[in-house]
Amino acid sequence: MAETDAGIFAAMPRIRELVFDHPADLDARLREATTPFIIRGLIADWPMVRAGRQSPRTARDYIQRHARDMPFAVSVAMPDSGGRLFYDPTHAMNFQMLRAKLPEIFARIDANEGAADAHAIYLASIDMHQFFTGLHEANHVDLGDRTPLASIWMGTRTRIAAHNDVPDNLACVAVGRRRFTVFPRDQFRNLYLGPVDNTPAGRAVSMVDFHDPDYAAHPRFREALQHGQVAELEAGDALYIPAMWWHHVEGLSDFNVLVNYWWRETPRWLGQPQDALNHAMLAIRDLPDDEKAHWRAMFDHYVFANGPDAVDHIPEAARGVLAPLTADTAGRLRAFLLRALSR
């Protein structure tokens, strides 16, 4: 691995690598996979990858030619952040969110390239269709009948705290190098998650500094490391991360570009589980213990078990949202919840 190999990453198992005989094999592997895997060279023939192999500036010029004339959201952190976009000592964010057009942002990256005191500059989750013309069409992975959200992530050397995402994720390194450290879903207790309502990017993140773990404050992190896996990806490589797997992401080059695809196998009209968790904190968490025990049993009955004993005694036509949801009944339930929450 690279120059930081002496850290926690050296002893961790590597993420498995798969070799496909034909690009169509990707679809089958994605459907059957329950753990992360790497496909080396999956996007090696992309024009963006070829441009990046010439130089970071050539890659930026290529990307900029496709950019729409509109402001982009960009995060800028101070040089003393070490590229870690995280909290400051007061638990505010240690970076500023600014808006600028892409030529201005890239000019600043050009000016700072190679400087020891450079600010970390990071454009996160930029919708490729909304902010670019033709970039996705020239650089994309065929994911069959899936309808993924295609996003591009660009920036200098950065460290993004371990977090998870609800959708499945195919992350493709187009320029530079990235290190991914991944953990199974059940490791959330050992990752010491921070606030759910004050986050760097909408998801709760691990409070552990992977480059300098504080085992006195986070002793269970040693257990998480027993279950983690790591890999360093070069330009052209891709990594599949199943839904809800935790991942810590580092941009290791002076300029890095990632294109990722998010998709869910569940219908789009279903709600977000995190919203349900947040509402449960509002409505249930601070109740007396005996009432919480009752609601735990109710959740088991109606949500987690969801067995025939919950509905068999109700005529099928009268089951409402207790029946399998459809787009129509999900819409009615969402409207009911909105009315209830607005009281």
CATH topology name of the largest domain: Jelly Rolls
Major sheet description: 8 strands, antiparallel
The main sheet orders its strands as: 1-11-8-13-6-5-2-4
Task: Report the β-strand fraction as a percent range.
Answer: 15-25%
Q: For this structure, what is the CATH class of the largest domain?
A: Mainly Beta
Category from helices, strands and their pairing: alpha+beta
Shape: globular
The number of distinct helices, counting runs of at least 4 residues, comes to 10
- The structural domain count equals 2
Helical proportion, percent range: 25-40%
CATH architecture title of the largest domain: Sandwich
CATH homologous superfamily title of the largest domain = Jelly Rolls
- Round the mean pLDDT to the nearest integer and report it: 94
End-to-end C-alpha gap:
56 Å
Radius of gyration (CA) equals 22 Å
Give a verbal description of the structure.
The protein is of the alpha+beta class and 343 residues long. It has helices at 25-32, 47-54, 56-65, 102-112, 128-131, 135-138, 221-225, 273-283, 289-305, 327-341, and strands at 37-39, 71-77, 84-85, 95-101, 120-127, 149-155, 158-163, 168-175, 178-183, 229-233, 238-241, 246-251, 256-263. Helix 2 (47-54) packs antiparallel against helix 3 (56-65). The chain is globular. 31% of the residues are buried.
